[in-house]
Amino acid sequence: MKSSTLGYYLSIGLLATLFWACNGKNTAKPDNNKSDSGQMLSTADSTLLHFWDQFDMNDTAQVKNPDKGEQRLADFIGLLSQTPDSAMRDRAVDSMLNKAKSNRASFDHFVKLYEHYLYDGNSPMRNDVVYESVLRYLIKTDLLSDLEKEAYRPVYKLVLRNKVGQTAEDFSYITADGSTQKLSDGKAKYTLLLFYDPDCSHCKETIQQLRDTPQLVQLFAQLQVQILAVDPWGDRNKWKNYQSELSYEWINGFDNEGKVLAFNLYDLKASPTIYLLDENKRVLLKDTYLQQVIQYFTQAK
């Protein structure tokens, strides 16, 4: 289950030092500061590519020291998350993991940390877009066997689904009155798609916030946000007994055919899992937090 506790603070001082240090290297290695098209890189991109230059991957003690190896990776992920160019993210990740290949223990350690930070359902830094770059590398690297690569392919397919800008995977569900509806049937300007488990404590917290916060209820009403709460995990009796906990203005659905999970239509790493969709059911926010949904609307106003 997802935790609402935020952590993994980035080291601002370290980033500032690295910006200065990497800029000092630009004159020494001009070729590394050009994009594939031959154009000069921005300061941010150059910093990203040189981020690991002074880090010794063969020093296993340093790599496994949380204050050094893990903190540096957290800082690196912070920069990757701010990089909109997927090709640049791929290039930076490739450079870092190619450097880590010199020590298999270091390589394996960082791969696990990438998964922990970017893909764990409890991580506030989880980011499928950045994890794509890591997975692309793992699937193509000559360091891993074909069997090891196969373990990453299903995950890679999952993170590519329901990306921001894509149309969300359609599915059917039954409602409290026994009727069958589809996600695509909704006509609201926005749909907050909430996958929940009646036994999940964090689901209960999120549902309570959505239901009982007057300012939030008013904001969603003004913006024409329809909440679609779907239980894809479950026990039909538990789902029925839990309906009184939801607002009567929401759509409360149950995946009685179990297709969401069976066909991996959505990457439900934990519960609750939240998506924000537009009126055409295009994904605006993927696997997000309620706070990020609120921030999305307040910034858009």
Automatic annotation (TrEMBL):
InterPro entries: AhpC/TSA (IPR000866), DUF5106 (IPR033395), Thioredoxin-like_sf (IPR036249), Thioredoxin_domain (IPR013766), Thioredoxin_ResA/DsbE_sf (IPR050553). Residues 1-21 form the signal peptide. Residues 162-286 form the Thioredoxin domain. The keyword NADP does not apply. It comes from the Bacteria. It holds the Pfam family AhpC-TSA. Keywords: Signal. SUPFAM superfamilies: Thioredoxin-like. This is DUF5106 domain-containing protein.
